[in-house]
Design brief:
transaminase activity, seven-stranded mixed β-sheet, 12% strand, pyridoxal phosphate, PyrdxlP-dep_Trfase, PyrdxlP-dep_Trfase_major
C-alpha cells in the first residue's frame, strides 16, 4: 500500500505537466474562451457519482473540461481589466504555500510564513514611500483591502467623538460623513455598504477624473454648515472620511493628494486612498510625481496581482496608525496564543482561517528587487503610451485620456464600440473591454502584464486595424 507521501506524487506531477502546457500556450493562445459555462458543466459531469475517481484521473479530467472555458488573462495582449500576468517565482511560491498548508493567522504559531509575509509588507510600505510605523496586511483583493482600511477609519473617527463601535456597534452612533470623487471605483461603495456607512457623497472631478480640491473643500464645508448640532447626528461637524484615488480606472490619473489630504485633515477627516494599481507609481522615480503627497494619507489599499504580477489572492491593506486597525480587526479566544510582540496577521485582516497569501508577494519582490519593481512599473506605463500612439494612427480613433500611467481609453467615430470589442474577441489576438466614460462609449486598454512588450503592442494595434477594416 502506498504511503501518504507517495499518493501525492502522481496527481502533483500531472498538475505540474498540465500547468506547464497551459503556460507555454498562453502567449499565442486565443484569448477569449471557446465554450460557455453549460458546456464546461457537461464535460465536468453534472451528477455526483456514487463512486469516486483516482486523484490523477480527476486532475487530468478537470483540466480537459475546464481549459476550453478559460480566458487567457495572463496573455500579454489581455487589456480587458487591470489584471496582471503571473510571474514564475510568485507562481511557484504559491504552489509551496498550498503544499505547506499553514494557517497564517498567528505569528507565534506559524513563524515561517509569517516572517515572509511581514517582510513583504515592510518592503511594500518602503517601496511606496508610506510613513514609518505603517502596518500592512494581505487580503483577498483590493475590495477587501478597502473594507479593512475603512473599518479602521470608522473606528478611528468614531473614537474621536467618544463612541466605541467595537463595543457598541454603529446603531445610534454619530453619523459618519464619507466623501469620494464622482469617479471613484465601485469597490469603495461595496466596502462602505458592508460597513453600514452607505454611499459616499460625490465630489466633482476634472476631465481626467481627478477630484477637485476646491470641490472637496466646499463639500466638507457645506456638510459641516448644514449639520447643526455638532455631534454629527445630522451630518454636521461629526466624524468624516475622505476616500481618494490613485489610478482612475479609465484615465489612470490620480487625485491631487497634497492639496486634498491637507483639506481633509483640516476638516478632521480620515483619508483613505484606493490605489489598486495606481499606487505603484510611487515605486518609480520617473512616475512618483503622479502620486505626490499620497504618503500623507491615513490608509491605503492596493493589489499585488495587478502590477507585481502575483497570483490571486494578493490584496494589500496598509494603515499608518496600527491601533485603529487592530481595534477593528482583532479577535480573542482563550485557545488562541496571542503574539508576545508585533501584530498578528489576524489583527490586520478579516480572516482567522487564512492561507499565507503574502508569501508569493515576497517571492515577487525578492526576484525583482527595488530597481526591478521600478522597471516593471515604468515598462507598463511605456507600453500604454505605445498603444495610445498606435491607436491615434488609425482612422477614426480618438484617445480620450491623458495617458499618464497604464490606462488608455479610445473612442471610435461612428462605430459601435461593443461590436468592435466582440470582433476583437473573435479575432483572438487581443482583448479590450467596452465601457462608458464621461458620456462617451470607449474601448479601454488596461496594461498590467509584465510581458506586454513592443511585439505585443504591435500585434494589438494590428488586431484593432483588422477589426476596423472588416
Amino acid at each position: 500500500m502506498p504511503g501518504l507521501a507517495d499518493e501525492f506524487h502522481r496527481p502533483l506531477d500531472a498538475a505540474a505537466r498540465l500547468a506547464r502546457e497551459w503556460l507555454d500556450a498562453v502567449p499565442e493562445r486565443r484569448i477569449a474562451p471557446t465554450v460557455g459555462i453549460d458546456a464546461v458543466k457537461d464535460a465536468l459531469g453534472r451528477e455526483l457519482a456514487d463512486e469516486g475517481l483516482d486523484a490523477t484521473a480527476v486532475v487530468e479530467a478537470l483540466s480537459a473540461a475546464v481549459e476550453p472555458g478559460l480566458i487567457a488573462m495572463q496573455s500579454p495582449r489581455f487589456f480587458g481589466w487591470v489584471i496582471g500576468g503571473t510571474a514564475p517565482a510568485p507562481l511557484a511560491a504559491d504552489w509551496l504555500v498550498t503544499s505547506w498548508d499553514q494557517n497564517a493567522a498567528l505569528r507565534e504559531v506559524t513563524p515561517g510564513v509569517n516572517a515572509a509575509e511581514e517582510l513583504a509588507a515592510e518592503w511594500i510600505c518602503d517601496l511606496l514611500g508610506l510613513p514609518g510605523g505603517t502596518v500592512a496586511g494581505f487580503t483577498t483583493g483590493a475590495t477587501t483591502a478597502n473594507l479593512v482600511a475603512l473599518a479602521a477609519a470608522r473606528h478611528a473617527v468614531l473614537e474621536r467623538v467618544g463612541w466605541d463601535d467595537a463595543v457598541d456597534g454603529i446603531q445610534g452612533a454619530p453619523r459618519i460623513r464619507v466623501f469620494a470623487g464622482d469617479e471613484h471605483h465601485p469597490s469603495v461603495d461595496v466596502a462602505l455598504r458592508w460597513l453600514g456607512l452607505g454611499r459616499p457623497i460625490d465630489v466633482a472631478s476634472d476631465d481626467q477624473g481627478r477630484i477637485l480640491p476646491s470641490a472637496l473643500a466646499a463639500a466638507l464645508g457645506e456638510s459641516r454648515a448644514g449639520g447643526g448640532g455638532g455631534d454629527g447626528a445630522d451630518g454636521g461637524d461629526g466624524p468624516a472620511i475622505v476616500c481618494l484615488q490613485a489610478g482612475n480606472i479609465h484615465s489612470g490619473a490620480s487625485d491631487p493628494f497634497e492639496e486634498c489630504v491637507a483639506i481633509a485633515h483640516e476638516a478632521g477627516a480620515w483619508v483613505h486612498v484606493d490605489g489598486a494599481f495606481g499606487l505603484w507609481a510611487a515605486a518609480s522615480g520617473r512616475l512618483r510625481h503622479l502620486v505626490a503627497g499620497v504618503d500623507q494619507a491615513d490608509s491605503w489599499a492596493t493589489d499585488a496581482h495587478k502590477t507585481l504580477n502575483v497570483p490571486y489572492d494578493a490584496g494589500i491593506v496598509a494603515v499608518a496608525d496600527p491601533a485603529p486597525l487592530v481595534a477593528a480587526m482583532t479577535m480573542h479566544a482563550a485557545y488562541l496564543p496571542a503574539a508576545e510582540t508585533g501584530v498578528d496577521a489576524s489583527d490586520r485582516v478579516l480572516e482567522l482561517s487564512r492561507r499565507a497569501r503574502g508569501v508569493p508577494t515576497y517571492a515577487a519582490l525578492r526576484t525583482l528587487g527595488r530597481s526591478g519593481v521600478a522597471a516593471l512599473v515604468d515598462g507598463l506605463a511605456a507600453s500604454a503610451t505605445a498603444i495610445a500612439d498606435g491607436l491615434r494612427g488609425l482612422d477614426g480613433v480618438e484617445v480620450l485620456n491623458d495617458v499618464v500611467f497604464t490606462q488608455v481609453c479610445a473612442a471610435f467615430a461612428g462605430r459601435d464600440v461593443a461590436a468592435i470589442a466582440r470582433a476583437l474577441d473573435d479575432d483572438g489576438i487581443a482583448l479590450a473591454h467596452p465601457s462608458t466614460w464621461r458620456g462617451r462609449d470607449v474601448l479601454r486598454f488596461s496594461v498590467s502584464n509584465r510581458g506586454t512588450d513592443a511585439a505585443a503592442v504591435d500585434a494589438t494595434i494590428d488586431a484593432v486595424r483588422r477589426v476596423l477594416a472588416g
